[in-house]
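Lab notebook: predicted structure, single chain.

Context: the supervisor wants predicted structures on file for every construct in the current expression panel, including those that have not yet been purified. This is the next one on the list. No modifications to the sequence; it matches the entry in the shared construct table.
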Amino acid sequence: MKVAACDFDGTLLRKGEVSAEDRAAIDDWRAAGHAFGIVTGRGVATLLMAMKQYGPVPCDFMICNNGALVCDGQSKELCRMALPEAARVEVFEHPVMQACDQCVMFSGTEVYVHADKAPYWIHPENRFPPLSPERARQMPLHQISLRYPDPVSAEAWATSLATAGEGLVEVHLSSICIDITACHVNKTEGIRQLMQVRHWHGEVLVVGDDGNDLPMIRDFGGYAVSTATPVVREAATNVVDSVGRMLREHME
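Prediction complete. Output recorded below exactly as produced.
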């Protein structure tokens, strides 16, 4: 059995849709006895919201929050890796928090917005319960996500936090957003946790398009879609036109 772990935004979801070609390839891949799943910076709730909007994608697993939350294909939690208290304190006291215009926090399948920031995440329709900074420091959060006005600001603040929080947090940059998990928690670690809890030992294929996909692409010799950022394409073993094309190459 082979295991295909696919990024969602910009990789599977492109130009506002999951193509019919990719859907057909996923169905054939799974029918051949292989496993397919999503590995994303999104939380499970926001991933399911997207699937409701753009159409469901059949999955055998969902690795969410950059590897911090691992779920089965029905979004049932299998394991999670929470931010330690010292890491939460570091994030909330760092200027990176004051500089962002939006903040969302994840605890298992629950999602909260920062009580002092915008009352939604990314889009106004994505509204979640507010959580105060004081309460957030006490909660078993496994990812904190911050949004900035532009990619330049996001990159600068990501670098600042990574330097200050070295040994405490892992900082994942994706366009105008920074996702923060516990140290050494990334998409690679999420895939390894999945393989362990499922007792899977097959070949792992990964494909992505942005900065938070780099760890798994480098560690698994993965693929990039043709619309990926230059640094991701350079790190990839190969560049493919679509997820479906990659799957079909490995079914032959």
